[in-house]
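[Q] Does anyone have a clean structure-token version of this?
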Amino acid sequence: MKKIVALFFALVLTIPTAVVLAKGGFAYIAIKGPGLTGELNVTNPALTQDFFIFADFSKGSIEAPLDPGQGYQVIRVYVDGTDVQPFDQLHYYPYSGYVYYDGIVNGSSEYDRKWYIANDAASAPFRAALSERSRLSWYTFAALAILLTIVFIAYRSKPTIAAAA
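[A] Here you go.
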């Protein structure tokens, strides 16, 4: 009887993973962290199609690093019709090469709350997503500066009305 109950719980915990992997990955990842205001949603297939893109959990966990440096919270999300569901959460440290796997949202696995070595394949697309966000911020700032300059020049060059004597 205990084996049946254990098997049942094992199946229940693996169904969300099977559903996500059967659909070809996650719809997007949501990133929060240093240098970001708000949340950055990334749909790059290099970061959403492979469950092990950030770390190969099957290679085993490591001891917690003394100082992993700056990390980013990553929430992997799948969409089923109109239903948006967070699948799992991890903390990715791209500059030191570590991943802390927080775990499956509303579930658990043997990989939860452990440290892993980061997969090198995630570094380039992750950094590209961060730099794209910063470029967009600069474009907005540049457009605002140009607009304010035009308004200032137009205001300074308007004709003045001579006062009647």
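[Q] Thanks! Anything notable?
[A] Confidence is low (pLDDT under 50) at residues 5-23.
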